[in-house]
Specification:
Elements (H helix, E strand, L loop, with lengths): L7 E3 L9 E2 L13 E2 L5 E2 L2 E2 L5 E2 L17 E4 L1 E2 L7 E3 L7 E2 L4 E4 L7 H9 L1 H10 L1 E4 L2 E3 L2 H5 L2 E3 L3 H39 L12 E5 H4 L4 E2 L12 E4 L4 E2 L2 E2 L5 E3 L14 E4 L1 E2 L7 E3 L8 E2 L3 E3 L9 H9 L1 H9 L2 E2 L4 E2 L2 H4 L3 E5 L2 H41 L3
Parallel strand pairs: 3-10, 17-24
Antiparallel strand pairs: 1-14, 2-11, 3-6, 4-5, 7-9, 7-11, 8-13, 12-13, 15-28, 16-25, 17-20, 18-19, 21-23, 21-25, 22-27, 26-27
Length: 402
């Protein structure tokens, strides 16, 4: 039934009291019986009770900023990407304050908190909230309570609100089930990797395995291009540190070289790339190029470490580099720079690699991991389809088309 049948109402008119900002007193280092939310409690999935801090004293249990179960919270200040995140507060068992960077909305009896949360988290609602944010830098923008309260909300009867919530809850249950399946498959893959490369834990290599310095099977490390890059797609695509994920290239945010790139620095199928400069958490990412683009190169923050294919397959090398034990070894040989760490390729090639002596056995290990990857990829595709369906369904329901 079209929303126009009931019309629209300002968000402020759906509330039992005015929109209010929270408080941010100095936190206590000891337990006082009253907690304070951090801004990170509001996520793209709604409210999550995390980043909690201790209030200064038990007296704050009587403060007007103490939350009630069912209060709707909205982030009023954050980056442009995160500002306006909304979620329903659920009782955490102790009195809890919300911070000054959040706004509290208490719906009237005519409006369900879950319905208003849905309106604010819907794609159209998120887009409107982002446009309301004001600031000179995208790293910190703010939404005023007056602007938030001025948003239009479909004035649906409670019974219609409840119907919409139930429909979306059913889809959300499918979404959670798929996400749980993906998480289990990822655990299976990790277990397969750890089991297949058990010799990495130490001790003598088992029969059929060898342990050699990486430089014995990786003859050279090659640095990428150092030219300034831009967004002009007429240039040569160049992979940077953010273009490696899960052992593969990630091409959603490419930069381009406006000048010609030497043929020897063009990527070829089977090239192994290693991220030598990044944050401590991301240093050592690696991936194999599989001809994802007709022509591409790589930046100097990456090095190409192609193995001697007669002894070591590139696929096994990438899996070895991604092994948790090896990632930790890479971090241990990194040196600290300004806000980043670096790994010297010479030191990297001094690490010892455990590997099956026969490339065929290396391929067997990799094939078992790729079988897991295929299942994970299929589930991720289904999850993406379901989320797209959910987004469209929310807008249709709120507009009366479903």
């Amino acid at each position: 039934m079209p929303a126009e049948r009931w019309g629209f109402v300002r968000l402020r008119d759906t509330l039992a009291e005015p929109i209010r900002n929270g408080v941010s007193p100095m936190e206590s280092q000891s337990w006082t019986g009253v907690e304070m939310l951090g801004l990170g409690c509001l996520t793209e999935d709604g409210f999550q009770p995390r980043q909690l801090k201790h209030a200064p004293s038990a007296d704050f249990a009587r403060h007007s900023a103490v939350l009630r179960d069912g209060d709707l919270l909205v982030s009023r200040a954050n980056t442009r990407q995160l500002v306006g995140l909304a979620g329903i507060y659920r009782d955490i068992g102790v009195p809890c304050l919300y911070p000054d960077l959040m706004m509290r909305l208490r719906p009237s009896l005519d409006y369900l908190p879950e319905y208003l949360e849905l309106v604010l988290r819907a794609p159209a609602g998120r887009a409107r909230l982002v446009t309301l944010a004001q600031g000179t830098s995208d790293s910190m923008v703010k939404i005023s309570g007056a602007a938030l309260g001025g948003l239009f909300v479909p004035a649906l009867p409670r019974v219609e609100q409840q119907r919409i919530i139930e429909v979306i809850d059913a889809v959300s249950a499918q979404e959670r089930a798929l996400q749980g399946s993906i998480t289990k498959l990822q655990s299976v893959r990790q277990g397969t990797l750890l089991s297949a490369m058990l010799p990495l834990r130490g001790g003598e290599p088992p029969r059929g395995w060898v342990r050699v310095p990486l430089k014995d099977v990786v003859p050279v490390a090659e640095y990428g291009v150092s030219e300034a890059l831009d967004r002009d797609s007429r240039g040569v695509p160049v992979l940077r540190m953010n273009n490696l994920a899960g052992g593969r290239p990630e091409l959603s945010d490419l930069r381009y070289s406006p000048v010609a790139v030497s043929a020897k620095l063009e990527l070829k199928y089977g090239d192994v790339l290693f991220n030598r400069t990044n944050s401590i958490d991301h240093i050592g990412k690696s991936g194999m190029w599989r001809g994802e683009l007709p022509k591409a190169s790589f930046a100097s923050y990456l090095v190409r470490i192609n193995p001697d294919a007669s002894r070591l397959t590139p696929e096994y090398l990438v899996e070895w580099l991604m092994h948790p034990t090896i990632r930790q070894r890479v971090r241990s040989i990194s040196t600290v720079a300004v806000q980043q760490v670096n790994v010297n390729p010479t030191r990297l090639r001094e690490l010892e690699i455990d590997m099956p002596k026969e490339p065929a056995e290396q391929r067997r290990i990799v094939d078992s991991l790729y079988a897991c990857d295929a299942q994970i990829s299929a589930e991720c595709e289904e999850l993406a389809k379901l989320r797209a369906l959910k987004s469209g369904l929310i807008d249709d329901l709120l507009n009366g088309a479903a």
